[in-house]
């Protein structure tokens, strides 16, 4: 037996080894071993292994099996990791109910549905190859000045760059602006910047630029990001061309896989956006023959309810307002004409037999003044000879 001084001088590691050895000795000899040195007789072990065989208490295989069999079904299920009744104990990740440090359990918790869909979309998008054809060289677009149209165009293009790509790299923002200008030049889209940006924003089936119909415009922009987007839009309207996307007219974020993506030609990915163009001749540079028509403030019902002719063909177009009629009396004959509305592109309607096409613009106040002065001068010249003529009897 060790003296108290020797026990105090032991290291913690040696003390731990001695304690474990004592516990093992007590387990092998049974509970009675603890009092064997004090004259207490050990308890006889129960005969669990068969007639005539005594074993160390509770440590033989038959003894363990008997103890295990005496447990309740729930405890047996928890104690047996191979039990088919508990493949995922209490809904937790398998492996945590029995901890084995040699094979630590893994957190195999399922990701949220949105994360799974985003990862699937990225894999699908990565499988679609980028076109090897050279990118079309698009001409520069310039719209400057202090008039209403340049100001409104800058506002609409800034909105598109900000709400679609505010946190994208500068090249990604310039690419979004280029898509807007490419659409403006394409025959299938409106002929104003605001018309392109807000096309389809009144549709329940989806707008062309998501921010125009998902409530984003109700959130005030961040000043610094808005200033950066405004600079990108101003540069695009001053002739800058984002050649990295060529004749792209469509794009989407890489975490979605829209149904229309396989029907277009994939051109490039910049940041989180993937850019596409029309297939065939409609996607080549010579197809972009449309001319800017102005009228940025003229967002007609046809524009607000319009669809993309390339990706939304067949969708029901927003019903146009009822036609206006005008009744005219000419030489005693009365005729009623239907006044044609503007086209979906925002430009004037083409002349149609039997209809009046309002293609003439209203004169300005200065033009009206000059017209009135010219008429007054003409009336004075016509009245002068009559005043100086001799009166005949």
Question: In a few lines, what is going on in this structure?
Answer:
The chain is mostly helical. It is built from 11 helices and 6 strands. The radius of gyration is 43 Å and the shape is elongated.
Q: For the largest beta sheet, what order do the strands appear in spatially?
A: 1-3-2
Q: For the terminal residues, how far apart are their CA atoms? A: 168 Å
- Average pLDDT works out at 75
Q: Biggest β-sheet, characterized?
A: 3 strands, antiparallel
What integer value in Å does the Rg equal? 43 Å
Q: How big a fraction of the residues is strand? A: 5-15%
Helical residue percent? 25-40%
Shape, per Cα inertia axes:
elongated
The oligomeric state is single chain
Count the E strands.
6
H/I helix tally: 11
Q: Can you describe what's shown?
A:
With 393 residues, the protein is mainly α. The protein contains eleven helices and six strands. The strands form two sheets. A three-stranded antiparallel sheet has the order 1-3-2, covered by helices on one side. Strands 4-5-6 form a three-stranded mixed sheet, with no helix packed on it. Strand 4 (324-330) and strand 5 form a beta hairpin. Helix 6 packs across helix 7 (170-185) and helix 6 packs across helix 9 (223-236).
Task: Identify the notable features of this structure and list them briefly.
393 residues; mainly alpha; 3-stranded antiparallel beta sheet; 3-stranded mixed beta sheet
């Amino acid at each position: 037996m060790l003296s108290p001084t020797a026990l105090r001088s032991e290291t913690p590691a040696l003390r731990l080894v001695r304690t474990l050895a004592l516990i093992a000795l007590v387990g092998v000899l049974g509970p009675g071993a603890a009092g064997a040195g004090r004259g207490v007789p050990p308890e006889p072990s129960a005969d669990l292994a068969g007639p005539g065989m005594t074993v160390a208490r509770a440590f033989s295989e038959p003894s363990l099996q008997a103890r295990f069999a005496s447990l309740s079904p729930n405890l047996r299920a928890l104690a047996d990791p191979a039990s088919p009744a508990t493949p995922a104990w209490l809904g937790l990740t398998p492996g945590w109910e029995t901890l084995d440090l040699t094979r630590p359990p893994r957190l195999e918790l399922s990701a949220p549905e949105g994360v799974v869909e985003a990862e699937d979309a990225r894999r699908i998008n990565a499988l679609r190859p980028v076109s090897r054809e050279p990118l079309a060289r698009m001409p520069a677009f310039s719209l400057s000045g202090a008039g209403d149209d340049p100001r409104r165009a800058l506002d609409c293009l800034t909105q598109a760059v900000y709400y679609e790509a505010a946190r994208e790299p500068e090249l990604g923002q310039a690419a979004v602006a280029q898509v807007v200008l490419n659409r403006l030049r394409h025959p299938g889209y409106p002929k104003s910047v605001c018309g392109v940006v807000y096309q389809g924003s009144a549709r329940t089936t989806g707008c062309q630029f998501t921010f125009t119909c998902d409530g984003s415009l109700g959130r005030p922009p961040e000043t610094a990001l808005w200033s950066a987007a405004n600079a990108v839009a101003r540069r695009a309207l001053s002739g800058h061309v984002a050649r990295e996307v060529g004749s792209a007219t469509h794009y989407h974020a890489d975490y979605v896989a829209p149904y229309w993506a396989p029907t277009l030609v994939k051109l490039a990915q910049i940041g989180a956006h993937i850019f596409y163009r029309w297939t065939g001749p409609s996607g080549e540079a010579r197809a972009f023959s449309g001319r800017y028509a102005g009228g940025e403030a003229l967002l007609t019902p046809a524009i607000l309810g319009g669809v993309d002719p390339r990706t939304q063909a067949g969708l029901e177009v927003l019903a146009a307002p009822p036609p206006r009629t005008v009744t005219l009396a000419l030489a005693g004959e009365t005729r009623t004409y239907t006044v044609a509305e503007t086209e979906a592109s925002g430009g004037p309607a083409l002349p149609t037999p039997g209809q009046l096409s309002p293609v003439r613009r209203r004169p300005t106040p200065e033009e009206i003044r000059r017209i009135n002065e010219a008429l007054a001068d003409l009336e004075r010249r016509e009245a002068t000879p009559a005043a100086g003529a001799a009166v005949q009897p």
